[in-house]
Design goal:
The complex is a heterodimer of chains A (308) and B (98).
Chain A: H1 2-15, H2 28-47, H3 49-53, H4 62-87, H5 93-101, H6 118-139, H7 145-173, H8 177-196, H9 208-213, H10 221-239, E1 249-251, E2 256-258, H11 264-274, H12 278-291, H13 293-306
Antiparallel strand pairs in A: 1-2
Chain B: E1 10-17, E2 24-32, H1 35-46, E3 54-59, H2 71-75
Antiparallel strand pairs in B: 1-2, 1-3
The chains are: A mainly alpha (308), B alpha+beta (98).
Bound molecules: fe (ii) ion (FE2) (3 copies).
Chain lengths: 308, 98
C-alpha cells in the first residue's frame, strides 16, 4: 500500500517533468536502473581512453599530440563526473570498479575495437564521439538531476572531440591517395560498430520501455540511430568517402536515409566478451588500477599522519 | 553523498565562480584526503577550460540541507504575500522612473 503510493506519487512527478534529486523518494527499480546505466556510462568513458591513448606517443605533430592529450583527459573527467552521479544514488565507486573488473558491469562495446591507424583517431572522434553526442544530447533531459547535470557539462566538452576528429578526416581524405585509402578503411571498420552503439532495436530492447516511462531515457534507440545516420551521411559525402552500406539511400517520403541491417550476431558477440579487444581492455584497467595502489596507500598514510 | 572516508579520502563539494563578482555555483564533487588535494583535484576536474576564476570547496558532510518533510514550509511561505512583489502595486501610466 505504502509502496504503491510512492510509485504513484513518483510517476506523477516524472510526468510533470520534475527532476528527481538524490534525497527524494524513488522506487528501488528506478535507483537500480540508474546505477546500472550511469556506471556503465562512466566505465565507457574510462575504457574509451585506451584506444586513443594508444596514439598519443605517435601523433603526427605536436599540435595533434596536444589535442589528443586534451581529449583523452576530458574522457577521464567525464568518467569522474559520472561516477560521482552514480554515488549520489548510494553506489560506491570501488564496488563499481570491482564489478567492471569481474565483468559483471558492461561498457560501450565500441571500445573493444582497436585503433590501428592514425585515421582511426579521426574516425573515432567523428563517428564514435558523434554517436555518443547524439545519445548524450538526448540524455540532458533525463529525469535524474545529477545525471542530467553531468550530461549537460559533458555535451559542452564533447563538441570539440567530434570536430577534432572530423578535422583529421578532412586532412586524411584530402591528402595523398594512400591517406585517402586509410581514411576510407577507418570508415569501413568504424561505421557499423558506431551504429551498434545505439543498442538493439526498440522491439528487442527489454529495459527500454520502463526507462522511457521513467524518463531516464528520452528517445528510443532506433530514433537516435536514424538521427545520427541522417546527420553523418552528408559529412561523409563532403569527405568524398563511401559509407560501407549498399542499402543506404535517401528516402524522400520519410525525409531520412534508409539503411541496411546491422549484424546483430556481431553485436551480441562483442557485448558478451568476444570482440577483438575485450580481454585486453579489462586487463589494462586492472593493471593500471594495481599500478596506482602505492599512490592510494601513500595518501592514506599521509592522511593518517597529517590530517586531523 | 556518502561521507564515509574511504581509500580515496573524503567527499568535497566544489563551487566555481565563473567571473569575478558573480556568485559561486555548485559544479560537482571530488574525493581528497585534505583541502590542498581537494582544491588541486577540483582545479584539474572542473576548471580545464577557464570555467572559473575562483574555487570554493566544502566537505559534503558539512552541508546542511532541508529535510524533505519540511521543504513545503521553505517553499510555500510567500504565496500569501504577493505585496512583496513590485507588480502588486498600481501606478498611473504617466508616472515615470518608478
Ligand atoms: Fe564519450
Ligand atoms: Fe566523453
Ligand atoms: Fe568524447
Amino acid at each position: 500500500m505504502v509502496k504503491k503510493n510512492i510509485n504513484y506519487k513518483f510517476q506523477k512527478r516524472i510526468d510533470n517533468n520534475i527532476k528527481i534529486e538524490p534525497r527524494d523518494d524513488m522506487p528501488e527499480g528506478y535507483r537500480a536502473h540508474l546505477i546500472r546505466q550511469i556506471s556503465q556510462h562512466a566505465h565507457s568513458e574510462v575504457i574509451g581512453m585506451q584506444p586513443e591513448a594508444n596514439w598519443i606517443t605517435r601523433a603526427p605533430s605536436l599540435r595533434s599530440k596536444k589535442i589528443l592529450l586534451a581529449k583523452v583527459q576530458d574522457e577521464a573527467g567525464h568518467g569522474l563526473y559520472l561516477y560521482s552521479a552514480a554515488e549520489t544514488l548510494g553506489a560506491s565507486r570501488s564496488d563499481l570498479i570491482k564489478k567492471l573488473h569481474l565483468k559483471e558491469a558492461k561498457y560501450a562495446s565500441i571500445f573493444n575495437y582497436p585503433a590501428l591507424t592514425w585515421s582511426d583517431i579521426g574516425a573515432i572522434g567523428w563517428l564514435v564521439d558523434g554517436a555518443a553526442i547524439t545519445n548524450q544530447v538526448s540524455l540532458q533531459k533525463t529525469s535524474y538531476g545529477p545525471y542530467s547535470r553531468a550530461m549537460i557539462k559533458i555535451c559542452k566538452e564533447e563538441s570539440f572531440h567530434q570536430r577534432q576528429g572530423f578535422e583529421i578526416m578532412i586532412k586524411m581524405s584530402h591528402g595523398t591517395k594512400e591517406q585517402k585509402q586509410m581514411a576510407q578503411d577507418s570508415l569501413n571498420r568504424f561505421w557499423w560498430p558506431s551504429l551498434m552503439m545505439f543498442g538493439p532495436h526498440d522491439s528487442d530492447s527489454t529495459r527500454s520501455e520502463r526507462a522511457i516511462n521513467w524518463k531516464i531515457k528520452r528517445e528510443s534507440n532506433d530514433f537516435l540511430r536514424q538521427k545520427f545516420i541522417d546527420k553523418t551521411v552528408p559529412q561523409a559525402d563532403f569527405l568524398g568517402l563511401t559509407i560501407p552500406d549498399q542499402k543506404l539511400k535517401w528516402n524522400k517520403k520519410r525525409n531520412s536515409y534508409d539503411f541496411g541491417e546491422i549484424n546483430w550476431n556481431e553485436f551480441w558477440r562483442v557485448v558478451n566478451g568476444g570482440g577483438p579487444c575485450n580481454q585486453k581492455r579489462i586487463n589494462h584497467h586492472i593493471n593500471a588500477h594495481k599500478d596506482g595502489e602505492w599512490v592510494r596507500k601513500a595518501l592514506i598514510k599521509y592522511s593518517e599522519k597529517y590530517v586531523k | 553523498m556518502s561521507n564515509k572516508k574511504n581509500d580515496l579520502g573524503e567527499l568535497w563539494e566544489v563551487f566555481i565562480q565563473s567571473k569575478n563578482g558573480l556568485p559561486y555555483k555548485h559544479v560537482g564533487s571530488v574525493y581528497a584526503h585534505d583541502k590542498e588535494f581537494a582544491i588541486h583535484n577540483a582545479r584539474d576536474l572542473y576548471n580545464r577550460r577557464n570555467e572559473g576564476s575562483s574555487i570554493w570547496i566544502v566537505k559534503s558532510s558539512q552541508i546542511v540541507a532541508v529535510d524533505l518533510d519540511t521543504s513545503d514550509y521553505i517553499i510555500n511561505n510567500s504565496d500569501d504575500k504577493i505585496y512583496r512583489n513590485p507588480t502588486f502595486y498600481n501606478i498611473p501610466d504617466e508616472i515615470k522612473n518608478l
